[in-house]
TrEMBL record:
SUPFAM superfamilies: Acetyl-CoA synthetase-like. This is Phenylacetate--CoA ligase. It comes from Kyrpidia tusciae (strain DSM 2912 / NBRC 15312 / T2). Residues 367-459 form the AMP-dependent ligase C-terminal domain. Keywords: Ligase.
Length: 472
């Protein structure tokens, strides 16, 4: 039986940093067997659930509907009786009980940080954190960052939007806790990408955090300014926010462009700043750091946990959060999980193919489910093609048509017709669909400093109901 510290939530020694040669930040947990880990997770889960029950009106109400009380929680199956929580539900609750909702488990005086979403997909959601939450999430970030190779000697350029993007704040707190130098540069202001290139060239950061789309755009800008991104000297680029770092062809492009390793991390803003998912330096897919955030992968329809080796929707539960804990938060994403051990030896399950994307981003064309990330993998595996692309879905008569718009790489010498042909054939074999390919000159499609939106579904504009799916 693994012994948990007496306190819940745990209190970590803020001054502790392992020696640079140490493999693990928290060897006690990271070298457990899978059985020991399960045991630890269950103990933490019981305490988190008891805490939530005692402090959150939101969950007490939800759980009363299924007749659940914390004493009922003996094993993971008991836990699976609890209803899911959706983003929509949290939003509605915050509208009814502004601004934090009825899931605020601490007093207003105890709030240490307030964050929120930018509200691109609806009304913004507010997140409150206690001081202890902030410290624990910084610790969690530092632990995952250590696993992918970040050390106190590193200089980390944070090239993502601050203000309402929690990912940037989590990265900053983690870098500070780990003892590396943080350069919280941000992104998204007019002219900032050009400035980023100049600052990076000047300061020579050894690590970069942002979105994969932005890293590719930044590299393009650097080349326009006559700078080879390899000259920045970056050895680790880590990402969250969208698929990309887990898409093999994108990973290869980022690595060959910058000369550093590309690392995938990330879950959802509601879960972060805790880093729930993140790769180690072996980069065999994101580890699901179960003792930080308990993650289940469940079948989108039956809503039952799927066995390892199967695909499903990640569902997240905090294990160390006081202010606004999430219990069984439905992500609406799709992934595949495995518990085959990674060469790093950590006991955590993994998402070996990353997170494919939101179920909402998936388009159904002639009965085939198409994720933009699958198209991305094909586009970026063709050398003559640029990094940017769009999926345009329309309806011709009663038939759905998928067109993929791509750009020629500005420095490529390939014949556009040959590149288009090769793309058409590869898409056909990967998606099982005939796709119309449109090759555009380099620089035609809009770039993003944040997360890319690459699907244009004209069926919606045409008033036809697309075959599609939605999350819970
Ligand atoms: C594939 C986790 C964070 C703060 O970086 C973030 O982007 O949170 P946000 O804005 O709530 O967006 C969450 C969504 O981004 C997820 O549901 C998923 O669709 C996508 N996402 C985040 N990280 C990844 C990702 N998709 N791979 C990732 N590594």
């Amino acid at each position: 039986m693994v012994r948990l510290p007496e306190q819940w939530p745990p209190v970590y020694d803020r001054t502790y940093v392992p020696g640079p040669e140490e493999r693990y930040w928290n060897p006690t947990v990271e070298t457990m067997t899978q059985e020991q880990l399960q045991d630890l997770v269950l103990q933490k889960l019981k305490r988190q659930i008891r805490y939530v029950y005692d402090h959150s009106e939101f969950y007490r109400k939800k759980w009363a509907a299924v007749g659940f009380e914390p004493g009922d929680l003996k094993d993971f199956e008991d836990f699976e009786r609890l209803p899911f929580t959706t983003k929509q539900e949290l939003r509605e609750d915050q509208m009814e009980h502004p601004p934090y909702g009825s899931n605020l488990c601490i007093s207003h005086e105890e709030i240490f940080h307030i964050h929120g979403t930018s509200g691109t997909t609806g009304k913004p959601t507010v997140f409150a954190l206690s001081r202890g939450d902030w410290e624990r999430m910084a610790e969690a970030h530092a632990r995952v960052m250590w696993a992918f190779g970040l050390r106190p000697s590193d200089k980390v350029f944070i090239g993502s939007v601050f203000s309402l993007y929690v990912g940037s704040w989590g990265a900053l707190a983690g870098v500070e806790r780990l003892g590396a130098a943080a350069f919280p540069f941000g992104a998204g202001q007019p002219g900032q990408t050009e400035k980023a290139v100049r600052w990076m060239w000047e300061v020579k950061p050894s690590a970069f955090y942002g979105t994969p789309s932005y890293a590719l755009y930044l590299a393009e800008k650097a080349k326009e300014l006559g700078i080879d991104p390899r000259e920045f000297g970056i050895r680790i680029l880590f990402f969250s926010g969208e698929p990309g770092a887990g898409v093999p062809a994108t990973r290869r492009r980022i690595e060959s462009t910058y000369g550093g390793i590309c690392v995938d991390t990330g879950s959802m803003a509601e879960m972060t700043p805790w880093m729930a998912n993140g790769e180690c330096q072996h980069r065999q897919g994101m580890h699901v750091w179960q003792d930080i955030v308990y993650t289940e992968v469940v079948h989108p329809e039956t809503k039952q946990r799927v066995p390892y080796g199967r695909e499903g929707v990640p569902v997240y539960t905090h294990l160390e959060r006081q202010a606004q804990p999430m219990v069984r938060l439905w992500s609406g994403d799709l992934t595949l999980w495995t518990n085959e051990l990674c060469p790093c030896g950590r006991p955590y399950p993994r998402f070996p193919k990353g997170i494919y994307g939101r179920v909402d981003d998936m388009v159904v064309v002639r009965g085939v489910n198409v994720y933009p990330s699958a198209v991305e993998d094909v586009v970026r595996s063709i050398p003559g093609l640029g990094d940017e692309f769009r999926l345009v879905v329309s309806r011709e008569g009663i038939m759905d048509e998928l067109a993929v718009q791509v750009e020629m790489n500005t420095t490529a010498h390939e014949d556009p017709a040959i590149a288009a042909d090769s793309l058409r054939q590869k898409l056909k074999s990967v998606l099982g669909l005939s796709v119309h390919v449109e090759v555009l000159p380099g620089g035609t499609l809009e770039r993003t400093e944040f997360k890319a939106r690459r699907v244009v579904d004209k069926r919606r504009m045409q008033g036809a109901a697309p075959e599609g799916s939605s999350g819970a």
